[in-house]
Amino acid sequence: MLELKSISKSFPGVRALENISLRFEPGEIHALVGENGAGKSTLIKIITGIYQPDEGEIFFDNERLNFRNYHDSLAKGIDIVNQEIQVIPDSTIAENIMLDKMITVGGTGIIKWKAVNSVAKRYLDMVGMTLSPNTVTRELSAAQKQLVQIAKALAANARVLLLDEPTSSLTGHEAGNLFRILRELKSKGVTIIFVSHKFEEVFAICDKVSVLRDGRHVGTKQIAELNTPELIRMMIGRDVTQEHLGKLDVDRGHEVLRVDHAVRKGRANDVSFSLYEGEILGFYGLVGAGRTELARIIIGEDKLDSGALFIRGIPARINSVGGALYRHRIGYVTENRKEEGLLLQSPVCTNVTITVWPLIRNTWTRLISRTKEVSITRGMMEAMNIRTTGPNQTTGDLSGGNQQKICISKWLAADCDILIVDEPTVGVDIGAKEQIHQLIWDLAKKQRKAVILISSDMPEIIRVASRILVFKDHRIVGEIPDVDSSNRTYGEVSGKIGQFLH
Q1: Of 328 and 13, more confident
Q2: Measured between alpha carbons, how far is 441 from 137 in angstroms, rounded to an integer?
């Protein structure tokens, strides 16, 4: 049994945890939920020795733990699978899985690669990966890298396994396979602490749930005692609605973007569509269906083999993200905020204003105006409700939800006319999710922006989009108009999406 007693932790200007007491039993899948900034990540880092508590004690099998670092945690059989991808990109899959448990010839230090690859293959099979253990990790998709992280944790034979948003990059099939593995581990007495913002996962896989809010423990309940509205109420102290946000005033006479027979081998297969002023156009499909690949073609990160792009009716050749932004006022909120969307070691103000530096730079000295930088950042912090100690706080120290808000903020600061938002609420709590949905809707409704919303979350895309394109095998296989009509029901729209995908 793992027990936390009166755990508290503070950082400069922030009381992250206050008097947290929790018990995690053997053979139990225990959900830990709460809004971004509620203290979940801090608590996980304390359990695994990455942080030390200011007050309180941790007991494991009635022994008091005094972890100095993560290695102490591993030595006790407590391991974590982080939401953020943490692999060595230039090493093989086998090297990543077996990094701290290489098999050598006696005491020579010579690695027995055949044995290492054989053991790694066993854990790859467990997570449903068919790739060779010799595959270089850099070549993998985000979902495959996540599976490698899970395989590495399984190889450690942990007695306590912490999973932080483990399905954020996984397809439904991959997530189902992970749940099967977790149930097997549970039957063997492993304690599993499961952090997720996806309520359907919490109710499907967990036995018990503990809720944190503003660094405090709100309560712990058996899953059988709860339903989704009650859990949301515990998390944010109020009810939320999943109804559509309202009818948008789409100007079908004002086409802002047209993609005409776009072809790129392995990425886009004869894709055509138009985007209009005031529209939220949803791109729905499973991971790998071609939605993100098409977005990267639009912003110039990838090139067309054939086909054309038109911006406001004029042919456009976009060769870079900078060209997309400064010549055509197109912004792209990437799905991979850690590796592509943010400078994690830089302050919040740098990340928020980086897209507008040319506009706030002194003509003669070429220096960025510090006054304007701070002013823009404070405005975005207030508008987006970004929880931070100030514009100078290091971005990597913020919660995932606050980082996502900063990712969106930098494109809002640039005042883009066309905004592509890729998986905007992955790893984001229900309160922040609701706020981001409203923000996207307001951009189209009130500011007359044209938005492409890419999402694998069906309730999200049905709630926010005014029209949905369904992707499969790198092509558009269906279109659902008037999603925001008061006559359309969730069941009807989701049914049509399902028909197109089968």
Answers
A1: 328
A2: 38
β-strands 330-333, 418-422 pairing: parallel
Mean pLDDT of the chain: 88
How is residue 215 written in tokens? 């660094």
User: How far apart, in Å, do the first and last CA atoms of the chain sit?
Assistant: 45
Place of tokens 């808000």: 405
Among 409, 418, 466, smallest CA distance to 436 is for 409
CA dihedral 153, 154, 158, 161 (to 10 degrees): 60
Please list, in sequence order, all residues whose beta carbon lies within 8 angstroms of the beta carbon of residue 112, skipping any fewer than 6 positions away: 103, 104, 105
At 240, the pLDDT band (50, 70, 90 cuts) reads low
Q: Is 126 a domain residue?
A: yes
One domain, residues 211 and 260: no
SS3 content of the chain, % helix, strand, coil (to 5): 35, 25, 35
**Residue 361's beta-bridge partner residues?**
368
- Residue 244 within any structural domain of the chain: no
Give me the pLDDT at residue 81, please.
84
Whether 242 is covered by a domain: the verdict is no
Non-local CB neighbours of 435 within 8 Å, separated by 6+ positions: 384, 385
Position 282 confidence tier, pLDDT thresholds 50, 70, 90: very high
Q: At what angle do helices 142-155 and 113-126 cross, to 10 degrees?
A: 110
Residues 231, 256 within the same domain? no
Q: Is pLDDT at 255 greater than 70 in this prediction?
A: yes
Residues 221 and 277 in one domain: no
